[in-house]
Amino acid sequence: MNAMNGRTRLFSALGGGAVLGAVLTALGPAGNFWIGWLSSTLLLSLSLWGLIFAWQKAGAGRTLAWMVALAFFLRLGVGVLVMELLPEYGYDTLTQNRGYLFYDAFRRDNQAWDIVKAQEPLLKSFAEEFKTDQYGGLLATSAFVYRYLSPDVQRPFLILILGAFTTALGTAFFWRGVRFRFNERLATLAGWIMVLYPDSILFGSSQMREPFLIGLTGIALWGVLAYFKDKWAARAGLVLSLAGMLLVSSRVAVAVAGVLVVWFWAEHLAPRSRAWAWGGALALLVGGVGVAYFGWDWLRDAFLWDANRTEAAQGWVVKIIQEAGEQFRLPILAAYGLAQPVLPAAIADDAILIWKVIAIFRAAGWYALAPLLLYAFFTVWKAAPEEKRILLWTAGFVLVWLLISSIRAGGDLWDNPRYRVTFIPFMALLAGWGVLRAWDRRDWWLVRWLLVEIIFLGYFTNWYFSRYFHLWKRLPFWQNVLMISVLSAVVLGSGLLWDAGKGLYRRLREKEHGHPRAD
Predict the structure, then answer these.
(1) In Å, how far are 93, 172, 333 from 102, measured between CA atoms?
(2) How far apart are CA 122 and CA 67, in angstroms?
(3) What is the pLDDT of residues 170-204, one digit of tens each?
(4) Which spans are transmembrane here (predicted)?
């Protein structure tokens, strides 16, 4: 696929934007057709032009073209499809009757329209009374779009365009950064994970913060990795993406900035001298202690509130905590949060068709990604020396973020995965590295972790199916946990013994025949 010149790029964007704009306007709410068509065409044309430009700057390859196109059109298409289907086939709630997947998206989008109707200043978005957007940035953006592009009627599709564009743009820059730092194979695999991860698609197909945070994180990551290669472009991208995240979600922005500061130190400063390495490590230690100290009260209060909500919604969770003891409340809720959304529960749940499909889709995605992350967590210390430092830090941050998300949201089916998915660029990088390492080295440890997950799913499929369908005798919860633990220990333990035996055999062979000559 050849790169386009400026004129071809412009005409392609305008033509595609005009056609798609007409389709969206026809599907959208009643209003002035020409206003709807012009506003949709403008946003779509700018989005397509920007994505083509980013694709060319990233290398203009065929695979990347498919990746960026799917990142954009999949999220926009699913978003439009869901908004069309939910009023007819969803639950009879105000949120779903209006076509919204999430209550937060429904409230924020309608508050943006209220600001426009009341002719309030856009800075009103940051006022205290708008509780559905803690930070105000996305609310202000939505109100701006409605005020200046859609003053006659509320058109939620316009916000979907912006979210899909930001994610797709971040995908292009993420691919370029990973390719530059590692290699094209990892960039491609990690990029596809980022594009196709179900929760990334689902949250990216709604008027939520997540598509903006994911895309901006991808751009910021490129800014760090290409800081001395793309120079001013990378530095401007880094600053602007972090500024955008601060407006959308300051807490996520601080977390991502913390990861990127460590990346910058590990990538550009620590290799220079021992002074930079030890000085940076000391600064990171002090910073980590400070964040833990000042953020502990917020995390504790948030955990208590979400834990109470989880226990109120899931009575069996209370029973399990009572049986285990109150001292195990935190690890039980954290483990339950890590398991969400639970695949057997999604399959067994008596939900209407559209929500059953969504639940299975989301859960299958998490249970496909989780063993890849587990394998990477336990293998990353074996990475090549030039990659080890940065991958170890990435694994550490991802693990901490997963735990914080689980503790922060408990077993909530939506908030926990929503917090988790904001780190999908880092998780995709780590999972992609693990898959390539296992493939290249024919490492059976990835298969062993998959077997552990199969054991977990098998026993909890029995537990949930016997609970919902009463098809067979239901094993007690703790008996399930015991059987899963024992069988998993057998799988992992046999793997350790096999590796130890191979190592011993190799050493004996070398001792008997001498060390092999270096090639």
Answers:
(1) 11, 27, 23
(2) 35
(3) 999 999 999 999 999 999 999 999 999 999 999 99
(4) 35-55, 64-83, 157-175, 211-228, 240-264, 276-296, 353-378, 390-409, 421-439, 446-465, 477-498
